[in-house]
Amino acid sequence: MKNTELKSNMIILAVLLFLYITYQFITQQQFYNQLKADSITTWGEITARLVEQNQGNEAEIMKVLTSHAADASMYQEKGREIFRQYGIYEDLQSELFPVLNNHIAGHNQSILWGLLILGLMLFGTSYWQYKMIFRNIRQLTSAAKRIIEGDYSVVINENKEGDLAKLAISFRSMKDMIRKSMQDLLEEKKFLGQMLQDISHQLKTPLSTISIYNEMMLNENLPRQQQVQLLENNDVQISRMNVLIQNLLKVAKIDARAISFDKERANLVETIEEVVDRLASMIREHHIMIDWDAPKEVVVAHDKMWMQEAVLNLLKNAIEHSKSGGKIIIQVKDTPIYTELVIQDFGEGMEAQELLHIFDRFYKASGSKKHDSAGIGLALTKAIIEAHQAMIKVESEKNAYTKFTVTFIKF
Q1: C-alpha angle with apex 250: 246 to 255, nearest 5 degrees?
Q2: CA distances for 236 relative to 62, 370, 378, 380, angstroms
Q3: Are 402 and 394 in contact (CB under 8 A)?
Q4: What's the CA gap between 127 and 134, in Å, rounded?
Q5: What's the rounded Cα separation, in Å, for the pair 374 and 244?
Q6: Residues near 304 by Cβ (< 8 Å), separated by ≥ 6?
Q7: For a disulfide at 361, which of 73, 297, 327, 379, Cβ 3.0-4.6 Å?
Q8: Coil, strand, or helix at residue 151?
Q9: pTM score, two decimals?
């Protein structure tokens, strides 16, 4: 029986019933013993009187008392006739038999006391059990009220087994879920506020620049060539804002777990090669040499589109911070335990203290030559890689190199 409350109740009832039966058995046995003792006393007195009057009848009297007399039926009928002469019949009320009546009254009284005690015990036990049950229910009700009011410090302890314990455990789980949901909502609210603040801050500069350029173009005396230049500058700022907003939305969706990554076991080398091909014109423009070191095929579970986004940001970062005519190393190493992707450039590099913030949103290294960077690409890269249950780390030395390492664990 899984319901321990019902089980304990049945055990208590069984114990009480056993005690009552035992009591009744003892009472009944006492009644029989007393009745037997009084019968011996009464018949002993009668026998003594008869023997005193006629000593020769002693053996006959004992035969009658022990039901061994041969002519018992004849004397039984004569005895009934004698009793009738004195008004004693079989249907006579027991009150007219003092000795028997006392025994019956005492026996009935014992039965009534037993029933009374059993009823009191049943009432007390039921009252105690229901009191415990309703106390637990009141505790859960009080806890629910406090949780509704926002107090999640309430403790719900129930170490026993049974339906009430299961209810308490479910209630405790519900409390933890509500608390987590509220914490998530608060974090999302905080995140949304920070995101809006960051977007506002990042859009302020290009919007101000566009506004200034528009005011300058309103000047009727401005030459056509300068108007075209201002329009081109505005187009650059608009493109910058568009990239910024798109990247911010991507990061926000990943943080909010609103993106379902379609991970498939595919060739990671092929994924990287396609990114290199997409950046071929940028590589030629900066006169960069790509030192490619990778096997033909390394199968890793990944979302090809999003992983290309991450690798694209890493490779663009390496190109933009490399010297003209420099070199970028791309390595893919595969082992039974992990797969490792390395992208290393030999350009500006960074100070050690800057490495701590390199993946922070809108962070730009103090010595960076790329002044129009929004500082969101590496934050997006880190979010994508971690969403693949992979790790990314960076090593750098000022004016020497910067090395990004992405590690995919296979277990």
Answers
A1: 145
A2: 136, 15, 21, 22
A3: yes
A4: 10
A5: 7
A6: 264, 266, 271
A7: 379
A8: coil
A9: 0.50
**Structural contact between residues 295 and 334, judged by C-beta atoms closer than 8 angstroms:** yes
Long-range contacts of 221-227 (CB under 8 A, 24+ apart): none
Structure token pair of residue 99: 């000795």
**List of residues 6+ apart from 155 with CB closer than 8 A:** none
**DSSP states along 291-356:** EEE--S--EEEE-HHHHHHHHHHHHHHHHHTSPTT-EEEEEEEE-SSEEEEEEEE-SS---HHHHT
Q: Assess contact for 171 and 156: CB atoms under 8 A.
A: yes
Most confident range (mean pLDDT) of 70-79, 125-134, 257-266, 320-329 is 320-329
Model confidence over 380-393: pLDDT tens digits?
A: 899 899 989 999 99
Q: Which residue has the tokens 């229901």?
A: 130
Residue type present at position 7:
K
Q: What is the DSSP string of 160-227?
A: S-SHHHHHHHHHHHHHHHHHHHHHHHHHHHHHHHHHHHHHHHHHHHHHHHHHHHHHHHT-TTS-HHHH
Q: How many residues does the chain have?
A: 411
